[in-house]
Amino acid sequence: MKEAKPAAGTAIRPRPGTRADPIFGYRPYWAHRLTPAPVLPMTRAEMDDLGWDSCDIIIVTGDAYVDHPSFGMAIVGRFLEAQGFRVGIIAQPDWRSTDAFEALGPPNLFFGVTGGNMDSMVNRYTSDRKIRRDDAYTPHGAGGKRPDRSVIVYSQRLREAYASVAIVIGGIEASLRRIAHYDYWSEKVRRSVLLDAKADLLLYGNAERALAEVAHRVAAGETIDGITDIRGTAFIRNRSPDDWIEIDSTHLDTPGSLNPPEDPYAMDGMDKGASESQGNVSTAESNADVQVVRFVRDVKAVDRGRSVIRLPDYESVSKDPILYAHASRILHLESNPGNARALVQRHGDRDLWLNPPPVPLTTPEMDALYELPFTRLPHPAYQDARIPAYEMIRFSIAIQRGCFGGCTFCSITEHEGRIIQSRSEPSILREIETIRDEVPGFTGVISDLGGPTANMYRLHCKSPKIESACRRPSCVYPGICPNLNTDHSPLISLYRRARALPGIKKVLIASGVRYDLAIESPEYVKELAAHHTGGYLKIAPEALAEGPLSKMMKPGMDTYYRFKALFDRYSREAGKEQYLIPYFIAAHPGTTDEDMLQLALWLKENGFRADQVQAFLPSPMSTAAAMYHSGVNPLRKVTRHSERVHIPRGLKVRRLHKAFLRYHDANNWPLLREALRRMGRADLIGNGKRHLVPSFQPAGTGDAREGSRRKGAYRPARTQHARQEAEDFKPKRSARVRKKRR
Prior knowledge:
The structure is a single chain. By secondary structure, the protein is α/β, with parallel strands linked by helices. A ten-stranded mixed β-sheet has the order 2-1-3-4-7-8-12-11-10-9, sandwiched between helices. Helix content is 33%, strand content 11%.
């Protein structure tokens, strides 16, 4: 590969490695004299007011433009502006024609395309594939303002409008669809979004480091298709370079007839079983057309900077769920920036190449990024329109990125990585003061200090050497790693200093508390209960039974009880009546009907009545999605004889599992009664306290046939106890209905 000469002021670039140049270390582009803008322009008139004849980079996004660091287009736009580029925004364009995409004219360097803060399919559809009526990232919460698979549609419209302008895609939608991935909505394995979007380059993860280098190199005259050496990028090439060594992924983790290793996360390289099983049909078929540049068996001896792991091709993983689970496992094992190799996957006659993950940002870089000149307000074009997502986060502050929890159903680790990137305490305090002094409507309450989790701030591996070599997907499952620093003292100090600032009445913690970490620091739980909980604290045990918990990589309920005991104790000592609100997931892989029944009984016994429930949604590229699609457990070495995972499939089963979580809803009683009889638990149908659901059905609820109260239907006994039970289960009528009936 030919190396281009760096432009004046840009840093000399190493090949993808663990070294990284400072993201603010580039010489600003010439247009820095014209920036910063009061707000990034969305119209030609705004560009004229700024004295711009054109934009250098234009960001197309599926969200409304809010100039707040919690919105992706804002943090990327302001970051590029700080590099000296003129950045325009096209927010939620009408995709039915190219008109909206031509509003700002062509950019001088490239278009950046993102679906927004959420995957567009997750944003538009429920877990039962029903279209949502609203969209929290749209003015007035209106639905229908973005297309399905927004990254693909936006990129195609840009190609129609400007065939020769480069397109770079990124954000969570592109990041989670960077390789062949199972798509829940079409129920098939789809190609990498890079091919379907016909884009030039894909940036995955938090992409500031890669984005800065791409922008400066294109500005210096390099062509986008020649940029192939930046970490955190994916691109298309015809074949591997001659000086690279290919490693067949099936020699690392053979999907043949091997026994699972004792350590389910071990990745010790080539083993004897792997070398002896190359006659396996699936392995031979999946690699029959692969030209290996140079094949080696001693994987550990290979130069990581010059080696690439070849995954089974798209055609193979789309037909064979076992190979798909294998590819998913390899992808997750090769996710540590300290030791990950590049990956390559054949799509038809071309290779999709993924460079290793980006190097995490340092604390000074995080500080500088989050202290860019955000207005922290929606673009003035929206006037007084209410944007629900903004209303929720406008007084919140991000203190860190990343998550080492590794929950299989969650996409945070796949996108942000498992190495925690924290801001400094002074930087966070300065942002609180900015909110206090400049944001309209501030009442003295900071709604959240957190990130992907509430309490991973400044937690890290005790040994950089161990951290760079580790391949475990979680630092806290099945137990907390002894190499993990769990000291919550920096976070406690931050909380205390934040609430002591003049004009700050309350600092709440709304991000999810990782309670298995919190119990390692009782002082943190005390601080949380005494000062930072507004009556209720939401936490997420997710499941009760070991079956689903082991597939989620979540701790058992003993840990929950230990946290609850601490939280209740410190709440009493603070003189506060406070409660934990546990969240659970329905229909997750590994969950049986019996598991959900036991969970419903636990909820009833503990007096919980959930208003809303979360049903499992196989998000692209997650480990749980690989379980859902393949029916095997990719947390262990994937073989043809891998552990089979029970998968709750079909709308009826999903409805039943959600109904167990909402056992108190009369509309669910017919379904629950039917299930309880089938499960041999009809003893739980009745009108006593020991029963889960009553045997009667209130009029106007549930199935119309059962709700009709037709002649001969069962009626509860007229005892005082039965009347009280019936009253408890009866849905409350509104005052307007009662008045009308009188």
